[in-house]
């Protein structure tokens, strides 16, 4: 018995030490510290924290773990944690939960929370409605400033939240203006809200796309923007910290999609899930690789006569791929940042063709000269030079037209654009080089 | 004479119409509308706006145009516009101006502005000091709340700015706490600032790197953070709109650097400058392309015997490149977002090796089978299959080790990583495939 006690003692105190160490940390740090553990372990850690604290930790955990916890935690605990969360965080936590479980949870929640969360769950994830919170400090335009102050005090007590912006609405809830701190602090308290508020207040539609919202925040340097529905009714608030998350997500998504990743893969994603996501894409790539191989195979006669031509295939194809990737990256990124207007793609195309021509001359001459010196054949040098020049032009064309074309048919310009451009530069590069070489072989000696 | 008048009339009124159209727009929109025009035209447009408005437009123009304007506008106009700008924007506008011109401008400015701007110009651009503004609403901890309110009122009048956060400092200017709106609105005005402020206030060091700051804002969802010097003295404020700009910049930079672009190229960059930036990089690529070509040339004997092997080079090399790009993108992005701790790279490596092995089996088997059917040689199929498997492993290794290695030697993991990984996958792919094929040719018939 004694021995057993000695064995369990250290385990239990290790857990206690762990908890007391975690208790000194910020909820975001706790989330980071525990996210790699087993679900059961995460649950026992969370049991040691108050509802309010768990609400904050939960928000910072990866989506999958949030869903798992919502599915598996005790129902009464869930129903106490959810009301402590911002409505948008609660909606995120519950977004992937099974319908039956969601119903059981909702049955336990106060009506006001159910309504807020349900509304949010109905908006698409990537719109203003999907990222906004419902909690906004509002006052009526008809209130006196003294009443407005009282309303803010009550609001702050309910939400435990600092009122940064206070919006004024009419009796139908339509957004009319915004109140500044100084108006509340320094004006005569008998004045009406409507007489001191700023009426020139920008808002975003609840249906606005999150990428568009990010561009608005970036361009105009807002810290927060009110969200209105189709009737001008104030329905929520998007703050710049939400926008920061959106921007990081969108940038990650674009980078990933360009190389055929899902857009949501993380280093923490389980390897088997990553493999399952990546392999189909690699198989698509394989198709295009065989296309390039088939082009090469058409020139078997030429290759049989002059096997060393094979050594120049990766040079012509690869350099086209590199130049195409440069053009593509500039274009995809500029499209994402809203820097290319609908009618501006021609200017971009002309620019890239100019760059392609100049680099074609420089790179073509260099590669031609080296090839001539290496193989001792000026004809071969000329063939490589010309093929390179033409392929860099093809790279510029593909690098601009693929993403612009994808956008025109409403597909994400980042999606698969990299593979399409590489296919063009490989196929064109091999075809140009081998057909020029075949002609040269026919009429001249290589 | 009359005819001439008729000719000039419409021109002048077109300008007037342009100006009255611009006058209805937000400064950010005006900047966007005029940024593509000639410098002289931009100057004549800006002449039509007040100093305050020009200050806001200027801030939103591209860096190069800001510098040009600072160099070429009338000195007395510049000296009236600068004081209307936030100190950080003023420092950005003046950052690239020639030393002589800067001195002439500084001589015309009020001493307080000169001091603020000079301090900011001394901080490296990519640190907290480089992105913060000097304007912060501060009160002394020893003040009564009534005095604090008075101080904020004066501050707001000077800066024309909404006080969102009010920081409390001791008599040496050291940050002690933060005041909430509710403390100013609802507490007894005779209370001391020190007795109502929140003392648990997070700050960032003036030397903190901007990427690190972006990660802090993202993780903890701040809207603003005070900046302190080495002595804990409050020296500025970073707001989340500054962070949004940093995040977009960093993401653009990473995307561009991965494909060998400068990190600062835009669609608006002049084509000749883009070409000058891109060509050196393409020449470096050319070196690695010749390396791959040299590997191929070593197997001339094999290629002479079986020319069709050339068709399989792009398949083995290209697929390795694609898989490597996927791994690389995940790792580079995770490093940028601070998701890979120093000791975690082994876990990432193991994960990618697992993915590489599984996709190696799947892709290898597929490519082997197709090759067998296409060329009617099971030996060739086997060679392609094995080479593909090994090359996908090499891709996983290179995709992880190149960026991790670059970071270990304090080089940006995005920089040139793409070319290095492609070089590995090309060289390894060609070598593996051709050497396996040579062995097979020696002992078996392909």
From TrEMBL, chains A, B:
Signal peptide as annotated in the record: none
Keyword tRNA processing annotated: no
One of the record's GO cellular component terms: plasma membrane
Keyword Cell membrane: yes
Compartment(s): Cell membrane; Membrane
Region annotation Disordered: where it falls in the sequence: 1-22
InterPro entries: CBS_dom, CBS_dom_sf, Mg_transptr_MgtE_intracell_dom, MgtE_N_sf, MgtE_transporter, SLC41_membr_dom, SLC41_membr_dom_sf
Transmembrane segments: 279-299, 311-332, 353-374, 380-402, 414-441
Keywords: CBS domain, Cell membrane, Magnesium, Membrane, Metal-binding, Transmembrane, Transmembrane helix, Transport
Coiled coil stretches, renumbered: none
Membrane topology term: Multi-pass membrane protein
CDD domains cross-referenced by the UniProt entry: CBS_pair_Mg_transporter
UniProt main location, coarse: membrane
GO molecular function: magnesium ion transmembrane transporter activity; metal ion binding
PROSITE patterns listed in its UniProt record: CBS
Domain called CBS: residue spans: 132-195, 197-253
Subunit structure: Homodimer.
UniProt function note: Acts as a magnesium transporter.
Annotated family: Belongs to the SLC41A transporter family.
Protein name from the UniProt record: Magnesium transporter MgtE
The species this protein was found in: Pelagicoccus enzymogenes
């Amino acid at each position: 018995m004694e021995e057993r006690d000695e064995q369990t003692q250290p385990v239990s105190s290790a857990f206690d030490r762990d908890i007391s160490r975690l208790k000194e940390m910020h909820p975001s740090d706790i989330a980071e510290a525990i996210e790699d553990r087993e679900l059961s372990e995460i649950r026992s850690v969370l049991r040691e924290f108050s509802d309010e604290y768990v609400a904050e930790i939960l928000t910072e955990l990866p989506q999958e773990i949030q869903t798992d916890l919502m599915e598996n935690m005790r129902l009464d605990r869930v129903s106490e944690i959810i009301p402590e969360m911002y409505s948008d965080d609660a909606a995120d936590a519950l977004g992937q939960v099974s319908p039956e479980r969601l119903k059981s949870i909702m049955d336990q929640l106060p009506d006001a929370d159910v309504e807020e969360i349900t509304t949010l769950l109905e908006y698409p994830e990537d719109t203003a409605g999907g990222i906004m919170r419902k909690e906004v400090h509002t006052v009526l335009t008809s209130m006196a400033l003294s009443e407005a102050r009282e309303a803010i005090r009550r609001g702050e007590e309910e939400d435990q939240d600092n009122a940064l912006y206070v919006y004024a609405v009419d009796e139908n809830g339509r957004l009319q203006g915004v109140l500044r701190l100084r108006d509340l602090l320094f004006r005569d308290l008998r004045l009406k809200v409507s007489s001191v508020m700023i009426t020139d207040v920008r808002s975003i539609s609840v249906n606005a796309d999150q990428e568009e919202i990010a561009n608005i925040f970036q361009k105009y340097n807002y810290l927060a923007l009110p969200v209105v529905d189709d009737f001008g009714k104030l329905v929520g608030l998007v703050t710049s910290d939400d926008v920061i998350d959106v921007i990081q997500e969108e940038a990650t998504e674009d980078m990933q999609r360009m190389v055929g990743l899902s857009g949501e893969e993380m280093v923490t994603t389980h390897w088997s899930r990553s493999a399952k996501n990546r392999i189909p894409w690699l198989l698509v790539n394989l198709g295009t690789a065989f296309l390039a191989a088939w082009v090469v195979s058409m020139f078997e006669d030429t290759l049989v006569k002059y096997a060393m031509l094979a050594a120049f295939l990766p040079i012509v194809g690869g350099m086209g791929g590199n130049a195409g990737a440069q053009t593509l990256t500039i274009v995809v990124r500029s499209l994402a940042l809203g820097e290319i207007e609908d009618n501006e793609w021609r200017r971009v195309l002309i620019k890239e063709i100019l760059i392609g021509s100049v680099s074609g001359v420089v790179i073509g001459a260099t590669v031609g000269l080296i090839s001539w010196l290496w193989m001792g054949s000026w004809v071969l040098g000329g063939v490589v030079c010309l093929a390179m020049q033409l392929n860099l032009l093809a790279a510029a064309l593909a690098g601009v037209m693929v993403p612009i074309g994808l956008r025109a048919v409403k597909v994400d310009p980042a999606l698969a654009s990299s593979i399409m451009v590489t296919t063009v530069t490989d196929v064109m590069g091999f075809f140009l080089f081998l057909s020029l070489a075949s002609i040269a072989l026919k009429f001249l000696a290589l």
